[in-house]
Structures are given as structure tokens and as C-alpha cells.
Write a structure and sequence with these properties.
This protein is mainly alpha-helical and 85 residues long. It has helices spanning 2-7, 13-84. The protein is built from two helices and no strands. It is found in: Cell membrane.
Length: 85
Amino acid sequence: MSTIRDNFPEEERGQANSFFLSAQNIGGILGTALAASMVVAFGWRGMFTIAGIIGILASLEFGSFSSLKEIKRLKRQTETKKRLL
């Protein structure tokens, strides 16, 4: 949720939050069906290998994206502290 807060203006956060929560549920449904078909096609080891590769690629992409947002968050926290003091 902090990622949504950091990347969306206040007036768009509700829509972004709804999309995020819906995507989690849809992903769970589709992921189960996809995993079952992958087990049939590639065996259970192949399914875990493919899922692992996708997970590693996704984490690399998200990691490069989130490091830039951390700088903005720190700046915002510093500005908030200055206003409070």
C-alpha cells in the first residue's frame, strides 16, 4: 500500500488501490489454473523452474523501480519533519 501512496496522487489512490486488490484476486485464480496446466505439460519440476524464472525477472524489474521511489519517500519524510518542527 505504501507503493500506491508513493506513486499516485491522493485523488487517484482509491482507483489504484482497487486495481491492486482486484489484480491480487484475479492473479490467484489465473495462477492456480496456469500452474495446473504447467504441471501437466512440463511436470512439477518444470513448473517450479518457470515460475522461479518469472519471479526473479519480476523482482529485478520491481527492484530497479522501487529504489527511485525510496528517494522521494525520504525527501517527503524530511519535509514533513521540517514542517512539524
